[in-house]
Amino acid sequence: MIQKIKETCLYVTDLDKTEAFYHKKLELPIISRKEDAFIFFRAGSDVLLCFMNDYAKNQEGLPPHFANGKIHFAFEVKTEDYQKWKEKMKDYQIKITHEQEWKNGLLSFYFEDPDGHVLEIVSEGIWD
């Protein structure tokens, strides 16, 4: 049985902007950074890999990978921290593009990173 998705890849255009957004604003610890290539972050027990598109597309040794367009993924937070994260978005002037109430009464909200990827903060238990 597959236990979980361990890592998620994004393809970015500027490592400094990516670091400022994910590390300084979303508070994800940095695992590794290679200039003009990638920056990797820890998200709980998971990993967010942010590659410069041309680097991942042309790297040797591993299968090439890349993507274009608005990639979507969600971060889960404790239900009691949901409003704090909404406030952080306001504090950092990150526009919330949509808020959704799900069938189980839990909430999530959507916003974009500097490359236009669609991110979501979900309350713990949304998929339970």
Task: Note down, in words, how this protein is organized.
This protein is globular. The model has no long low-confidence stretch (mean pLDDT 95). It folds into two domains: 68 residues, 2,3-Dihydroxybiphenyl 1,2-Dioxygenase, domain 1, CATH 3.10.180; 60 residues, 2,3-Dihydroxybiphenyl 1,2-Dioxygenase, domain 1. A hairpin with a 5-residue loop joins β7 and β8. With 128 residues, the protein is of the alpha/beta class. The strands form two sheets. Strands 1-4-3-2 form a four-stranded mixed β-sheet. Strands 5-8-7-6 form a four-stranded mixed β-sheet, with helices on one face. The two termini are 18 Å apart.
Strand order in the largest sheet: 1-4-3-2
For the secondary structure, the number of strands is 8
Q: How would the global form be characterised?
A: globular
Mean pLDDT: 95
In which range does the helix fraction lie?
10-25%
Q: Please give the count of helices.
A: 3
Q: What's the SSE pattern?
A: EHEEEHEHEEE
